[in-house]
Amino acid sequence: KQWYQRRVAITAGAGTLCNTVNDISGVIEQRFPLQLNINKVNFEDQVVTATFIKSIEDGPDEFTQKLVVMHLGFVNLAVEEIAERGVPAELFSSLSRPAEFEAICIDKAPYLFKKIACFAERHIVQLK
Length: 128
Fold this sequence. Notes:
This protein is 27% helix and 37% strand. The chain is built from 3 helices and 4 strands; from the N terminus they run αβββααβ. Strand 2 (47-58) and strand 3 form a beta hairpin.
């Protein structure tokens, strides 16, 4: 049972990030300093990803730039519903505990309560 739960958690994170593979091009280097599994996900669940670009800075040379990108994976929500209702900006900050995400959902966006599968902070160096 532990293996199964761990595999589902890995699947939620992988699904969240795989949804973004074509969103950002020219990636030279990337790292994930923070990734949290917020709520459980089942194999049959659909994961939809929302991305927020937190910052863009000049890179180490004139041909590159550095981005800090935040990703949220939502379980069984339609993209149209997320776009129509919105996502509170506070969810894209570097929160460190699942309970912090859920508290924001209860207060600002109840339709997202228990619907966040994963959060990932991604640092990217890309070609301009």
